[in-house]
């Protein structure tokens, strides 16, 4: 199977190769037959193709079996490249990657802010408050006068249903509990439609325990009793915010892996951004990228009905947890460099 590797900006060129290194180790140990091909988005895309998110690279991601996708620092692109949405948004919408699954869990040896948590934020990926990708033509943000800015938020029954199905399916493989987040008591039409669509879906999963929690109350509950949540279904921006919070509660942003997926395509992409403040120093934590790579293998196992990919994903998870208990990067109080940590995980995968 062919994996496209896009390093991206900031710490991307440091963490993405560690994700690849772990996939190579897993491929060797479990006979997965993965091959890797590099392509360019972001600053490298501007250099090579004259565009930060070239159409041809999007097509190559679509053609590949999966992709390792680094973060992007689009706010620093030259002004002429800032007119379009950021590369992540373009790709998620272009490939209709409707589900963004973002796990966060406490692990032995990793200093966390909560004693125990194992949660997945199932984040809607196509619409919500992201006005830069909400319109067929024209911008979703505008100013009626110099002192009044407005933006468009989209909530559709289709997108809400799609993420609810992805979240429920994921919960069926886990502890069989879903929490639906909304603010339907105030935003009666938008969050009201979201709530209705999610509850329609959950009614078809009688084995699941289902609860609804109001957005702001959830911010308190995830800190106070994170152990009570399993899969948490959120609209786009709510999910973005809560997944950062969940990563940080578990120990830090460098832990937050994720996949962006549809039924046909999947890209492994960290929940965190490009961290330009620590780029180029070999001190970034590659854990999120490695977690994301393992999640992509699980997705491939289901799509192609190949149990070896599941075994490989589990092996990466176990190797990662074992390594994190023994030694970590500086963000987690350790003294390991980014490449040293990735190499140590790869050795454990093959052990
Ligand atoms: P962007 O504009 O691309 O979102 P950002 O710096 O605003 O970048 P993040 O990249 O999400 O936002 O990170 C915020 C901070 O968290 C970073 O400045 C960095 O210190 C820390 N951080 C994020 N990812 C990692 C990582 N993998 N390893 C170590 N620290 C990280």
The CATH class name of the largest domain reads Alpha Beta
The second-level CATH architecture of the largest domain is 3-Layer(aba) Sandwich
Q: Main sheet: which strands, in order across?
A: 2-1-3-12-11-4-5-10-8-9
Instruction: Tell me the major beta sheet.
Output: 10 strands, mixed
Distance between the termini: 23 Å
CA gyration radius, whole angstroms: 20 Å
Would you identify the regions where 5 or more consecutive residues have pLDDT less than 50? Answer: none
Shape: globular
Query: How large is the count of helical segments?
Result: 11
Q: What is the name of the CATH topology of the largest domain? A: Isopropylmalate Dehydrogenase
Beta strand count: 12
- Number of individual domains: 2
Percent helix range:
40-55%
Which sequence of SSEs, written as H and E, runs from N to C?
EHEHHEHEEEEHEHEHEHEEHHH
Would you tell me the overall average pLDDT?
Answer: 96
Structural class: alpha/beta
- Bound small molecules, deduplicated: adenosine-5'-triphosphate
The fourth-level CATH homologous superfamily of the largest domain is Isopropylmalate Dehydrogenase
Residues in β-strands, percent: 15-25%
């Amino acid at each position: 199977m062919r994996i496209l590797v896009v390093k991206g900006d900031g710490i991307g060129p440091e963490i993405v190769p560690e994700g690849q290194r772990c996939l190579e180790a897993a491929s060797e140990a479990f006979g997965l037959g993965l091959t890797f091909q590099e392509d360019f988005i972001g600053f490298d895309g501007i250099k090579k193709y004259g565009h930060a998110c070239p159409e041809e690279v999007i097509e190559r991601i679509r053609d590949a079996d999966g992709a390792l996708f680094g973060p992007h620092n689009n706010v620093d692109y030259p002004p002429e490249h800032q007119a379009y949405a950021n590369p992540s948004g373009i790709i998620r919408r272009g490939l209709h990657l409707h589900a963004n699954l973002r796990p966060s869990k406490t692990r032995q040896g990793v200093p966390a802010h909560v004693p125990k948590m194992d949660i997945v934020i199932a984040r809607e990926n196509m619409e919500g408050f992201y006005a830069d990708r909400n319109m067929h033509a024209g911008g979703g943000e505008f100013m009626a006068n110099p002192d009044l800015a407005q933006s468009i938020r989209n909530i559709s029954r289709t997108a809400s249903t799609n993420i609810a199905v992805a979240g429920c399916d994921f919960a069926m493989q886990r502890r069989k509990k879903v929490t639906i987040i909304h603010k339907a008591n105030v935003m009666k039409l938008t969050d009201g439609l979201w709530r209705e669509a999610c509850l329609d879906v959950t009614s078809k999963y009688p084995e699941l325990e289902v609860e609804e929690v109001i957005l702001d109350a959830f911010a308190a509950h995830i800190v106070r009793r994170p152990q009570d949540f399993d899969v948490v279904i959120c609209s786009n921006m709510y999910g973005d915010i809560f997944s950062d919070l969940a990563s940080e509660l578990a120990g830090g942003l460098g832990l937050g892996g994720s996949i962006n997926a549809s039924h046909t395509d999947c890209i492994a992409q960290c929940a965190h951004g490009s961290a330009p403040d620590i780029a180029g120093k070999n001190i970034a934590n590659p854990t999120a990228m490695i977690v994301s790579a393992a999640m992509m293998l699980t997705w491939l196992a289901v799509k192609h009905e190949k149990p070896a990919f599941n075994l490989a994903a589990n092996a990466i998870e176990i190797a990662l947890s074992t390594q994190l208990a023994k030694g970590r990067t500086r963000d987690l109080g350790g003294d390991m460099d980014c490449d040293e940590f990735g190499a140590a995980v790869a050795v454990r995968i093959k052990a």
